[in-house]
Each structure stands twice: as C-alpha cells, then as structure tokens.
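Late entry, evening session. Most of the bench is empty. Finally got around to the prediction I had been postponing all week. Sequence below, unchanged from the version circulated by S.P.
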Amino acid sequence: MSLAGKTLFMSGGSRGIGFAIAKAAAEQGANVAIAAKTAEPHPKLPGTVFTAADELNAAGDGKARARRTSDAGIVPMHDSHPGRQSTVLESRPP
C-alpha cells in the first residue's frame, strides 16, 4: 500500500520510534503531522519537534508539520464537526 498523498498524525514524533515511523512514512511520500513536548534541545537526547519536522521534510515528497504540545494538549477529534478534523491540537504556552 502506498502512503503517497496520505496524512499521518504521530504523537511523540520528535525522536525514537515515533520519529522512525514518521520518517518511514515521509520517505514514502506521506504528509506527516507530528506532536511532541520537546521544543527545546535536551542536553543528552537529539532532536526537537521542530528539527524533526525539518528532517521529515528533507526525507520525502510529502510535507511535515510540527506542533509542540503539553501532556494535556491533545484535543480529541469529533466527527460531529465537519471541516474541523484537521485541528486536533490545542496550543498552550509552557
């Protein structure tokens, strides 16, 4: 199954398995939306949600978008709101 033109939402996409899955999808041409808490570089761990999006954009033909989120920042998607399904994150300052 081709992922070209499909859209993937990946939470925890700034590093580890979440990033690996997002990168594999991007390499197959998927558009990728990643959400992660890591906005600032960690002294021992590579990557932030923003550097991950840059790397995903370089990896494939799709487009990657990043959003920093807090533990409570995910807002559930509801089928009862047509046209609003793409707005799945609530922005909150740290």
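Two things to note before I forget:
The beta strands are 7-11, 31-36, 64-68.
Residues 74-94 have pLDDT under 50 and may be disordered.
Will write this up properly tomorrow.
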